[in-house]
Every structure is written in structure tokens, then in C-alpha cells.
Write a structure and sequence with these properties.
The protein has a four-stranded mixed β-sheet, with helices on one face. It has a four-stranded mixed β-sheet with strand order 5-8-7-6, covered by helices on one side. The chain contains three helices and eight strands, in the order E-H-E-E-E-E-H-E-E-E-H. It has helices at residues 17-27, 88-100, 149-152; strands spanning 10-14, 31-36, 40-44, 59-63, 81-84, 104-111, 117-123, 129-135.
Length: 155
């Protein structure tokens, strides 16, 4: 069995890179770390310093010619990607901010019963579903981890 220690990145297919960059960079705050003109863009949360030539990324946008089919929510493929915000209030603020900027709100803000995360589901310009979450639990994640994160990652 493999021992996966972290999620490295998520890649989304998009039909218009410029439009997708605007959404993820200008509305959601991702930082562009590199790319290939007209083909792919790599983005991160801004956690890496800039004195290197590596395109470290948490999110990738890959340009494709075809949009999602009408039944995309009923066929196999990625369902959504979830990004954690620092506070419940930020999830609530995101709903207002994104709606004011023309983003399709699918559901929320509400609170999941299964993990007590406050959540908001939206669509990016190509119909990819994005979830924003923040825990309502006061001792998350430390109170729920089997061992410290650094130890789990082998640090």
C-alpha cells in the first residue's frame, strides 16, 4: 500500500485561460507561478518565495477545446475541489463577494453535518465546482489528528 502524505495539486480543464486566470487570481487570490502561453498555467497560494525558476503549484489550469457536457454532474470525473478558508466568517463573506462579482453560487453558506465545516459551493467560469470551507470545531485539526502533521509527513 502507498503512504500518501499530502495533496500535491488539483488540475482543472478550462476553455479560456485568460478568463480562468482572472477568476482564480483576481477573485480567489491565487498567485501565478508559471505557465506555457495558451496551454497551461500553474498557480499557488503564494507560500513560495520568488527567487527560483520552479513553477510550484497547488492548482493548474489546462486549456482544452471543449466545454463540459450538459450532464457533467452525472458522469464520472472530479466532483469538486475544496479550499480551506481561515474562519467561518470568511466563508460567509466569500458568498457575498463572489456573488457580487458574478460568480454562480450553487449552495451555501451552510454547515455540513458530517464534519461541521461551514461551506460554500460555487462554479468557476467553465462549470468546475469549487467548495470553500472553514471548520466550526475549536480544536481542529490538532484535536483530531492521530499524530502531528510534521511527523506524518516525515519531517
Amino acid at each position: 500500500m502507498l503512504k500518501i502524505v499530502d495533496l500535491a495539486h488539483v488540475m482543472f480543464n478550462v476553455t479560456d485561460l485568460d478568463r480562468a486566470i482572472h477568476f482564480y487570481r483576481d477573485l480567489l487570490g491565487f498567485k501565478v507561478s508559471g505557465g506555457i502561453e495558451g496551454q497551461i498555467v500553474w498557480m499557488n497560494f503564494g507560500q513560495y518565495h520568488d527567487d527560483h525558476n520552479y513553477f510550484f503549484h497547488d492548482l493548474g489550469l489546462y486549456q482544452v477545446p471543449n466545454a463540459l457536457p450538459n450532464n457533467y454532474r452525472k458522469i464520472a470525473g472530479i466532483n469538486h475541489a475544496a479550499f480551506r478558508l481561515a474562519t467561518v466568517e470568511e466563508v460567509d463573506h466569500a458568498a457575498v463577494y463572489l456573488k457580487d462579482n458574478g460568480v454562480m453560487i450553487l449552495k451555501g453558506p451552510l454547515t455540513h453535518k458530517e464534519d461541521l465545516d461551514r461551506y460554500l459551493y460555487v462554479e468557476d467560469p467553465d462549470g468546475n465546482v469549487i467548495e470553500f470551507v472553514s471548520t466550526t470545531l475549536p480544536d481542529f485539526p490538532e484535536g483530531f489528528l492521530q499524530r502531528p502533521v510534521a511527523e506524518a509527513k516525515g519531517v
